[in-house]
Amino acid sequence: MTTLFNFINGELCTPKISDFLESQDGSYVLDALTLDPVSVMSSTDTETMDMALQIAHSIDASKSWQNNRNKTELFARLANEMEPLISEFALADCRDVGTLMSTANGLNGYGPLVCRNLNYLVKDKCFEWKELLENGKVVGKMKHVPVGPIVVLAPTNAPLGSALIQVLRGLACGNPVIVKPSPWSPNSFNLLARAFIKADFPKGVFQICHGGMEVGKYLVGSPLVKAICFTGSTKGGFEIAKSCATTLKPIAMEMSGCNPFIVLKGADLKKAVETLVQSLTMINGQYCCGPSKVIVHKDELNPFIELFRSRVSQLVFGNPQDENTTLGPICVGLLKSLKGQIEYLLSRDNSYAITGTDLKIPNVKGTFIPPTLIFMDTNVSMELFGPIATLHSVKSVSEAILLANQTDAILKAYVFGKVSETAMVIESVETCWIDENEFDRGTPGLKEPHSWGGFSGFGHATPDFFVKTVYVRN
Q1: Other CB atoms closer than 10 Å to residue 427's CB: what's the count?
Q2: Among 159, 191, 197, 349, which one is least packed by beta carbons within 10 Å?
Q3: How do residues 250-285 score in pLDDT, each as one tens digit?
Q4: Same domain, yes or no, for 228 and 318?
């Protein structure tokens, strides 16, 4: 079993608390496949958090990291230390979350690349005074300076994959960074601490404090912390926003929402179903961009359902470390909530589940949930963080749009159909990230981040977020 470590001022130390809110349902982080203990669920005491916060504050006040001239060399060394650990990062996610090895390698593999290209992390920010000219005359100067100590709150589903870019950008812009992993998927951060130690990064510049909601609250509420990066639920994001509002502390939050998947009359049903199954099985459905509400034109409903059943029946359930597996188990920490949502939906009048047939689910202790549509004859808007979505039948494009927008948050929407009709959806659905007649895992070609739909996010952890601009007029 792995020993979990905090990483404080360059030293590994064991968290002192094992009895806390998130550990009440079990004392161990469990392997998603076997339910064998992986590590003890652990939380950081306030004395240790205060130490980490004070160290970060002192580094920021001294400007020792801000003025460090060896950042390029340090990040290159970090890249060299991270590279051989990529498969170990992925293995940690396989165990903690159930993520397929191939997916986890992709999520965690970008670190060395960006560490060797600091321009990607800082994006032309000037950390030295730059003269400002007006009609050929110097009229002032400006530069960017670090915003101050950053707290990064990592999600459960893609713990290192989501948090690492925020950590690296914060550091590259001259800020000390404290990261708090999810209590259910913390083990990849042990490996990250090892990489920082071997790269001989300055002590205290990067720190790790393990724990659950209470640790997150404490770090977010500290006046020594100057900005917050959060990836997680909309509910959690609101709590963070409330805490930061009284001091106007900057926050960058990527949350989720009730994401609609719209299939219009005349759509390429085979392509639509393939995209739906891909999006429902990404990280075994534990995917912030995954669909929660599937909306299908009534004339396409029956053939759509049959194609869906057939495609789900082709999935290979199994060990996420096996390259032949196409769907792994659900993270233990997310399972209770997801099961409760499924039970609620199936308790509604006239609801029923649609999934594949003759599914070959392994006889293991972990829980596999096949991609499932739950037909509803009334609107239900829920963020379903698993391979589950509600299914609704509509008679028109306008009805589909109305149903899609009956929620407070849409991170991403999908629409399939004739271009003349998908255009109506694109113009009307209340989100800023839409896949039209295809599945796109990223946002290629964008020079700036997309905006958020409703309560699906706030701010962006771009280089601008991690710096302040100082302007002097002569």
Answers
A1: 8
A2: 349
A3: 999 999 899 999 999 999 999 999 999 999 999 999
A4: no
